[in-house]
Amino acid sequence: MPTSRSKAPCALRRSARALLAVFLLHVTVPGWTGPAASPLIARFVEETETAGLQSRFEGEDEFMVGGGVAVFDCDADGLPEVYVTGGVNKAKFYRNHSTRGGPLKLQEQRSGLELTSATGAYPLDIDGDGNMDLVVLRVGEVEVFRGLGQCKFERANALWNIKTGNDWHTAFSATWEPGQSWPTLAFGTYYDRSRPDFPWGTCTPGALLRPDPKGGRFAAPEPLAPGYCALSMLFSDWNRSGQASLRVSNDREYYKGGQEQLWKIQPGKAPTTYTAEEGWKRLQIWGMGIASHDIDGDGYPDVFLTSMADNKFQKLSGDASRPAYVDEAFKRGITAHRPYIGGDIHPSTAWHAQFADVNNDGWSDLFIVKGNVSTMPDFAIQDPNNLLLGQPDGSFFEAGSVSGVASFRRGRGGMLADLNGDGLLDMVVVNRWEKAQLWRNVGSGSAIAPAPVGHWLQLRLRQNGGNRDAVGAWVEVQTGDRVQREELTVGGGHASGHLGWMHFGLGETSQARVRVQWPGSGWSDWTAADADGFYVLDRQSGLRPWRAP
Amino acid sequence: MQTPESSHRTTRLRHWLGQAMRAIDRALATVLLMTPLFFGTANAQTSVTVAPPAAAYSAGVAYEWFYLVSQLLQQTPGNSPPVAARSLGYLGLTLYESVVPGMPGYQSLAGQLNELSSLPWAQPDEPLHWPTVANASMATMTRMMFSNASAENKGRIDLLERSLPLKYPDDFDPAKVTANITNRSETFGKLMAMAIMTWARTDGGHEAWGPLRRNRANYVPPSGPGTWSATPSKYLPPLLSWWGEVRPFVLTSTQECVPPPPTPYSQESDSSFYRAAKEVYDISNVATQEQRQFALYWADDPGKTPTPAGHWSYIANDLLRSQKADLGRAAATHVLLNMAMSDAFVAGWAAKYQYNLIRPVTYIQLFIDSNWVTPLFTTPNFPEYPSGHSVQSSAAAGVLEQQFGKNLPFTDNTHNDRGWGPRTFPNFNAAANEASLSRMYAGIHFRFGSEGGQAQGRCVANKVMALRLKP
Q: What are the beta bridge partners of residue A497?
């Protein structure tokens, strides 16, 4: 190119000169505060070995996708347990014995969940008994376990009439439809297992399981057809109508004529997809994972879709009358299309994605797990996970390397969750053919002396009736003039689920106000809450602090 | 008001600033030179420069890849004419989509082609070097399209990818293209090829020599008066009976472009059908040397030549080179031409297996002369109507007329190395007509088969030319 080399230094010189000018202004002009400070860096310390996490996700063709982890508290101590799928290896359940604020400690425990061919897992309380149940996605029949309390489980497929068939199950989400005490479950599948020699164009349909009107079980599955090889799905109230729709991210590697989907799930009606006439814009990506959060504060969830170097950040355009989205990944600096360290220049392969505030500055961050499908030569082999810190201007800052989480293993599923109750989100990642990894978030400190990076608040919702955890609720946390907003969902990511404390970073603010829009209802009143605490917000009795037993 | 003292301080500050700027310049130059592999990430959204458009480069990259592909089509097993046209279609699309972000005023064809809604797009802040993008995308797609090529030919693909920058130093001037831009451009090119191949795998024609062929091996052609049956001398089973079901690039259905119905079948000696067969028979007995040459020239046999689609692709590639076309123009020409030819074969094959019409050799042996054989080469192993070469040649001529002009005389060098060229034609239509009629001279088609194919081919060309390359 004629000009690139000659102009590049000029541009950089100009930038450097501008920086120098800014520096000089800063030191010579009293009162000038300068540009916004760089984001707070939360440091992570890997504790895989010391914590006792010993899991590997392995297997050949049918295990090229999946590799999920479920994080949920099943013994009511406030510290979530960890369930890691293993592909051809047995999945493992780890009881969380971490010391609050201290090193992570996971103890493998027999639980009845030790399944082979498990690829993903999502916790939720299906029967509303207050014990967390678990949905395990498998290459083969989905297995659903009923929680019995104290981390005991029993297989519940027959009890609840869950018949998913022998497909290759790769995605899950759940919602409570209006007036229902039991959830509606959605399952996504990959391609026809009987056609391994020519899988292209053989994606199998998904299934929707709705509560049986007689109660206590599910009705016969309704097809989600056409299926386009779903690798992630998420029920979310995209237009704040009070009724969640099902977004499905599909892997175009295998489908024929497919696209990303948004299913209308209306009570008593068969599911249908939103059409172009209704505003849905066709999009084809190698869809792998979904993360959802109201990043721009407009009251509607934004969606991040992972893919092979073609990741999207979708923001609702116009009013919420039509599901029309525009891509703002580039604008916000979260295309994440190539490794940012390590020297591998090939495109990235992104899987699990999750929005959460790891540095407690009050701005949601984006965590992306990455890894080559196997050894695809045209995609990066050295593909580090991303930790993109949200900034007040809406852009994101890559901190994967400085935070210490830039793993080069073949990542798949993952989860950010506070595993030691210190208000800092820790990280677990499942890798294909390699050991899963665990990092403790030590804030601005070290493993020996963790230090906070900002205030925080964690919240669990409680209501009577079937949907005890209030899945589908919207929580708002106000600090100063700013309101953070989060929808409580079950699903998304890549084969990985979490249900438990909702975490909010509060920055330098030591007090916040909290309110919730309960599913199918209006907003509660604002209630004040001190920072750095755990709270239960009960629909009947209001907000109360939660103390560890 | 500025005092002498403050003025002095300002002068000193300016002097110090100047020194500091020069020091920064030196440091930055050092950093740039010492970090040749640095590349920007999405988070370092610094626009280094504005990349020159694809039009700033020669069509050399396109020429070299399509030239190699013409040889691969000939030498790689399984590249029967429809399969070869499909390969060219995807290669044309790959070239276009990989450089269209560098073609101001043009747009991606995603959203206009069947079941292709979107493709990756170049990062707006990351300048790309379009010859490098095209080289990487064409190399990647060629490898995937010819995955069953011989080891020697796979080596030629690798060699061409490596050697192109040396062969076209003006386009790949290392003094003007930084290592980071080269790396980034290769990445984008490969990603585009991967995305298009992902789509290609679902068209029903992927790897036609492999699993698809095995799955379709049970086809039994219908029988009855006037229907096709295996032809001498090898009596091969029908070729690619399902190719009419392959997803076209542009046609929403093969019914969008159908040939007029063939002449009604009849065995009566005073029927139009009989007369058509008699014409083929008579010409075979009195064909001029010129007509025989035409027949052989346009035979375009698989395994011996680049096939009919490869022949027209060669003509276009040669013309672009002789006219010193730029990379953008070459991409626009190749995408339209090659997709049109591929769709022509799909539509033509759908009609062939719909009408399932008897070949002249079968009819003539039954009702005119039982000892007659086609005079120049054996009849291809698929039904007669319409003439596939006629459909495809007319589609090609239609696109090339749009791209180069209706009355452009041109020289065809495709068969120079076989000693049959160069040949000069007054225009594309004349060449297409000659190609079409050559099938009758060869004794493998009726006149109405050639003419019906021409009408269908023109229809396909019009559909493809209706694509909106520009918004």
A: A70
CA nearest to A386, candidates A402, A372, A366, A360: A366
| C-alpha–C-alpha distance, residues A137 and A57, integer Å | 14
Confidence of residue B50 (pLDDT cuts 50, 70, 90): low
A29-33, A120-124, A341-345, A373-377, range with greatest mean pLDDT = A120-124
Choose the mutation target among A1, A203, A254 for the interface with B, i.e. most B CBs under 10 Å. Answer: A1
The C-alpha atoms of residue B374 and residue B234 are separated, in whole angstroms, by 13
pLDDT (mean) for B411-432: 93
Average confidence (pLDDT) over A380-391: 97
> What is the distance between the alpha carbons of residues A394 and A366, in angstroms, rounded to a whole number?
12
Phi–psi pair at A70, nearest 5 degrees: -115, 140
Query: Who's near A181: CB < 8 A, 6+ residues apart?
Result: A128, A211, A215, A465, A466, A467
For residue B287, the model assigns a pLDDT of 85
pLDDT at position B211 is 57
- Residue B201: CB atoms within 10 Å: 19
* Short-list A288, A301, A263, A246, CA closest to A488: A301
Residue A377, pLDDT score = 85
Size of interface A-B (CB pairs under 8 A): 150
* pLDDT above 70: percentage of residues in chain A: 93
Strands A426-431 and A437-443 come out as antiparallel
Total residue length of chain B: 471
DSSP at A509: -
Residue B274 confidence (pLDDT) above 70 = yes
Is the pLDDT assigned to residue B48 strictly greater than 70? no
Nearest CA of chain B to the CA of A518: how many Å?
37
Instruction: From chain A, pick out residues whose CB is under 8 angstroms from the CB of B17.
Output: 20, 24
* Residue A308 at interface with chain B, using a CB cutoff of 8 Å: yes
Q: What's the CA gap between A61 and B329, in Å, rounded?
A: 42
Residue A30's pLDDT band, with cuts at 50, 70 and 90, is very low
3-state secondary structure A203-264: ECCEEEECECCCCCCECCCEEECCCCCEEEEEEECCCCCCCCEEEEEEECCCCCCCCCEEEE
Residue A7, pLDDT > 60, answer no
- pTM beyond 0.90, yes or no: no
Among residues A369, A416, A384, the alpha carbon closest in space to that of A66 is found at: A369
- Which candidate from A13, A256, A398 shows the least CB-CB separation from B43? A398
Where is average pLDDT lowest: A198-212, B37-51, B141-155?
Answer: B37-51
The label of the residue with tokens 């035979």 reads: B299
Question: Cα–Cα distance between A36 and A18 in angstroms, integer?
Answer: 16
State how far the Cα of B127 lies from the Cα of B111, in Å rounded to an integer: 25
Nearest Cα of chain B lies from the Cα of A361 at a distance, in angstroms, of 19
β strands within A105-168, DSSP E = 106-108, 118-124, 133-138, 143-149, 152-155
Task: Quickly state the pLDDT bin for B7 (edges 50, 70, 90).
Answer: very low
Q: What is the ipTM of this complex?
A: 0.83
pLDDT above 90 coverage of chain A, percent: 89
